[in-house]
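A reminder from the course coordinator: this example appears on the midterm review sheet, so study it carefully.

Given structure:
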């Protein structure tokens, strides 16, 4: 029965790392949205200069 808690701990560690991994991407995604228009603005002005 000593294996139970060990497996549970490993499971939670994996779950937490996966959760943090996705949270990173989610935060990165949401922070990207407000910057999108300005990104296109700078991109457009760069193309016009060409």
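Designed residues:
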């Amino acid at each position: 029965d000593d294996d139970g808690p060990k497996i549970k701990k490993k499971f939670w560690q994996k779950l937490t790392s996966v959760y943090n991994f996705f949270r990173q991407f989610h935060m990165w995604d949401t922070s990207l949205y407000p910057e999108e228009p300005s990104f296109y603005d700078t991109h457009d002005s760069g193309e016009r200069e060409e």
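The CA atoms of residues 20 and 26 lie 10 Å apart. The radius of gyration is 21 Å.
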